[in-house]
């Protein structure tokens, strides 16, 4: 009794049984369409966010959160840079490094990224020591030993294994009386690693930093300093502060800039899939338009009686807007609940399907990520719910406007 008249009538229309059962079916179909679209969109975006998080985490196991490197020449004062970085409470670890593209030759040839590291401090910035799958530990990269550790896929492409040798061709050339010759050195493969990220397993070769300095004729210089932070979101600020402290021509980079194209592509893919899946919600909204138009036609006599009793055209419009919007609200809430429940139990559902049909949907020998990671973001759920409610509200405008234009005399002529 305390509700406004349009709201009370709209709620009554929603609860009342329809004379035309087909209208009730269309209303239910529109509600189901909205709920299905919301649930599918929530689950899909959660899976995509989970895969993005998994890719990012695996990449950052090997890639630095931030780097500070000399601009165009070897970095000579790297010990001072490492010491200053380790004093920063925001830094979890710091280590010098050398990186250079090279050509590796075994039974087959393959391009790779040569990384010179200090085995003692490398554990502070990467997990490579924990990802060894064959041969010796990372400590086997002793200065002057000219040992090398390869990614497992890279070793397969080269056709080598632990104990074999590979020739490393550096991009620099050495001038001799007989002409210019590429700098090269024979290294012994002492270990293989696998981190679960193709960029590193397929193209990274690791040697001792002293051996890389001798091969590349860098003296006591390095390419730069790699930093691992407690909070990777402030990587750029920390690296910039370190470069300012060192007072020189240094180049600063962080993980977002080093992998900008990949993260931009992932965001674009997620956005496009969200737009495409929103069409399911839009189909539910169109079905809602149809059901409301049919309801308005069915309620012509009721509308005329309400008008003769003093209800304004605006009030009539509000009646059907309330009734249609409630269908959208029920569908959206149902879809949000179903989407969250499906996302939280998706891994169990996947395992159940595999057991029921005796199949492996994501075999370990094919995919790096064998599970189905999910990440339910509150922001995504809120945006999806708002989009669904907006579509449902807009779907009620035309039928409600049509109801408001009903002439009482014309509607009651044949009653």
General description of the model:
With 415 residues, this protein is α+β, with helices and mostly antiparallel strands. The protein folds into 2 domains: 5-57 and 262-412, no CATH class; 64-258, no CATH class. It contains 16 helices and 10 strands. A 6-stranded mixed barrel has the order 2-3-8-5-7-6. A hairpin with a 2-residue loop joins strand 6 and strand 7. Helix 1 (5-15) packs across helix 12 and helix 12 (313-344) packs antiparallel against helix 14.
Shape label: elongated
Q: Helices and strands: which structural class?
A: alpha+beta
Number of helices: 16
What is the succession of H and E elements?
A: HHEHEEHEEHEEHEHEHEHHHHHHHH
Number of domains: 2
Radius of gyration using CA atoms only:
33 Å
Please provide the count of β strands: 10
Give the distance, in angstroms, between the N- and C-terminal Cα atoms. Answer: 29 Å
The level of helicity is 40-55%
Could you report the average pLDDT, rounded to the nearest whole number? Answer: 86
Could you give the order of strands across the largest sheet? 2-3-8-5-7-6
Return residue spans where pLDDT drops below 50 for at least 5 consecutive residues: none
Largest sheet: 6 strands, mixed, barrel
β-sheet strand percentage: 15-25%
Concise account of the structure shown:
The protein is an alpha+beta fold and 415 residues long.
Q: How would the blueprint of this fold be written?
A:
Layout (H helix, E strand, L loop, with lengths): L4 H11 L5 H40 L5 E5 L7 H10 L3 E15 L3 E9 L1 H4 L9 E4 L11 E5 H7 L6 E12 L2 E15 L4 H4 L2 E5 H8 L7 E6 L5 H12 L3 E5 H4 L1 H39 L1 H9 L4 H32 L1 H12 L20 H18 L1 H8 L3 H5 L3
């Amino acid at each position: 009794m305390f509700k406004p008249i349009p709201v009370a009538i709209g709620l009554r229309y929603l609860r009342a049984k329809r004379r035309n059962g087909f209208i009730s079916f269309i209303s239910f179909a529109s509600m189901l369409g909205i709920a299905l679209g919301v649930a599918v969109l929530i689950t899909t975006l959660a899976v995509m966010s989970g895969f993005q998080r998994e890719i990012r985490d695996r990449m950052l196991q090997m890639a630095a959160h931030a780097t500070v490197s000399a601009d165009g020449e070897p970095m000579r004062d790297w010990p001072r840079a490492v010491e200053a970085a380790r004093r920063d409470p925001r830094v979890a670890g710091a280590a010098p490094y050398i990186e250079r593209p090279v050509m590796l030759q075994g039974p087959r040839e393959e391009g790779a990224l040569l990384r010179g590291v200090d085995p003692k401090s490398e554990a502070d910035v990467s997990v490579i020591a924990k990802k060894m799958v064959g041969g010796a530990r990372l400590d086997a990269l002793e200065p002057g030993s000219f040992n090398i550790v390869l990614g497992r896929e890279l070793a397969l492409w080269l056709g080598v294994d632990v104990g074999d040798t590979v020739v490393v061709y550096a991009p620099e050339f050495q001038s001799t009386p007989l002409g210019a010759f590429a700098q090269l050195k024979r290294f012994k493969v002492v270990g293989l690693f696998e981190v679960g990220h193709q960029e590193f397993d397929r193209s990274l070769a690791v040697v001792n930093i002293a051996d890389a300095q001798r091969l590349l004729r860098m003296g006591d210089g390095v390419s730069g300093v790699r930093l691992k932070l407690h909070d990777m979101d402030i990587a750029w600020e920390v690296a910039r502060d370190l470069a300012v402290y060192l007072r020189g021509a240094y180049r600063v980079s962080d993980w977002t800039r080093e992998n900008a194209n990949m993260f931009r592509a992932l965001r674009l893919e997620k956005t496009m899939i969200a737009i495409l899946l929103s069409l399911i919600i839009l189909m539910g909204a169109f079905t809602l338009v149809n059901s409301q138009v049919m309801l308005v036609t069915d309620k012509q006599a009721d509308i005329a009686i309400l008008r003769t009793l003093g209800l304004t055209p605006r009030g009539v419009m509000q009646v059907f807007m309330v009734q249609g919007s409630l269908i959208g609200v029920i569908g959206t809430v149902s879809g949000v609940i179903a989407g969250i429940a499906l996302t939280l139990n998706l891994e169990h559902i996947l395992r159940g399907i595999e057991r029921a049909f005796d199949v492996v949907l994501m075999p370990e020998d094919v995919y790096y990520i064998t599970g189905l990671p999910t990440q339910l973001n509150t922001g995504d759920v809120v945006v999806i719910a708002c989009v669904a409610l907006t579509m449902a509200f807009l779907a009620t405008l035309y039928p409600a406007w049509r109801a408001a234009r009903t002439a009482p005399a014309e509607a009651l002529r044949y009653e």
